[in-house]
Specification:
13 helices; elongated; 274 residues; Helicase, Ruva Protein, domain 3; mainly alpha
Amino acid sequence: MFTHDDALKLTKKMHARYGDGFARQWKGFSAKEIAQEFYEELSAMTVEQIGRGLMRMKTHEFAPNVSQFSNWCIGDLKSQWLGAHEAWNIARGSIDFNGYELTVVWTKECAVSFDAVIGMVKLGDKYQIAEAKKVFVERYERMVTESLERGEKPVYVVSYGDDKEQRKVAVREAEIAGLLPGGTSQTLIETTQTPGEGKSEAAKFKAIAQEHLAKLKTQLKSHNVKVEIEEKADVKLFKLPEKLDCWADPFEDSETYKQTLKKEGKPIPLAVQQ
């Protein structure tokens, strides 16, 4: 249940997020009076609904009034969709200034629209980025309009970036906001691994194996056990004599083979006695 203390925390977040814009909007009201307005409007809201409003607040440029924030929390079909400029802020945040990909939680419409302009964004030129935003907004608005006409709600998916810690934060925030199913963030984090992380894990286990092997060699050496063939001294190769007495085949020429054994004083095997 949304309490009065929760309302105070919420208004403090809004003041920190919007600064002078929030202060001008509530000029003449005390902090307790502002919190009371939000409490009266939001007291029946669930944690998930408030989280949805907070998530929306992160991408909205201007401070919402009480009614607007309430709509974000409850959400009719249209209000459930991010506006084009809000969607752009999320999409733009999927790439940092060095060109590395970051984890974002967005809709298919947002992802497809950004994919069309990602080349311009990566160039980093302010004119190219301005043009990219224009193209993105037009394409996103068209796709959302088509989705609304079909009566579809936004479906959020995770686009994983390279920073593992930032990924955890982004996924967890989206789960709290109700954009992802509750209780799935840990599974998503544990079961998703970038190719780079896979190579890193393989290298780590290889290093561990080599370390244990080195320790094993040290232990064996301490007990005077030679573990490398290079450590064996005076290794002499066996040299065959130039002339060898060839033995007859015991099955093809059994008589000659038997005579040779008799000369050598050796017993005749049962297999060739018959």
